[in-house]
Amino acid sequence: MKNMNTLMTPFISGKAAGLLMAVCAILPGTLLSAANRDAASPRVSVSLDGLWQIGESGMESPPASFERKVPVPGLVDMAEPAIVEPGPGLTHLDKFSQKDPRRDAFWYRRTFTLDRSLPAAATLKVGKAMFGTRAILNGMLLGDHAACFTPGLFDARAALKTGENEL
Fold first, then answer.
1. Among 33, 54, 94, 123, which is disulfide-ready with 70 (CB 3.0 to 4.6 Å)?
2. Are the CB atoms for 126 and 154 separated by under 8 Å?
3. pLDDT in tens, 147-164
4. 3-class DSSP assignment, residue 159
């Protein structure tokens, strides 16, 4: 089975986000693509890998601007221009708080175009987000996924629209 990286989150949060990696995908149930077509299944994935906009802010609202770009999948410290001290050092975990003194979260933003009719089902898959994920599509909260390297799966159908989408 092919790697299914697609619709990602406009927001992935991280406390020690210097190690954050993110891989995302939207898995439309009926959206077909010659590159991803499997003769046994109508499932198609739309990759959202590539350059994403990234910004720093608190947990409750997105940043006012997204002035940096970062490759996804990739690490926060790969952002251009560089992010100042992207996370606290991970030493003496038992003695010191690991809260990042500069920010509560990194928010990721990307737009993509759905140039076909809406599928019957659409799932956003976010993989390898070490410090957790909050997924928002077109202003609608899809959900949160606890910190870990297990993939987060979100029902994106209600928020997905034909034309331009913002994650």
1. 54
2. yes
3. 777 899 999 999 999 999
4. coil
**Helices assigned H by DSSP within 61-160:** none
What pLDDT band is residue 11 in, cutting at 50, 70 and 90?
Answer: very low
56 neighbors 125 (Cβ within 8 angstroms): no
CA distance 32 to 157: 16
Contact between 115 and 160 (Cβ < 8 Å): no
Helix H, strand E, coil C: the string for 94-120 is CCCCCCCCCCCEEEEECEEEECCCCCC
CA distance 138 to 4: 21
Task: For residues 120 and 111, give the distance between their C-alpha atoms in angstroms, rounded to a whole number.
Answer: 21
How far apart CA 167 and CA 153 sit, in angstroms, is: 14
CB 105 within 8 A of CB 155: no
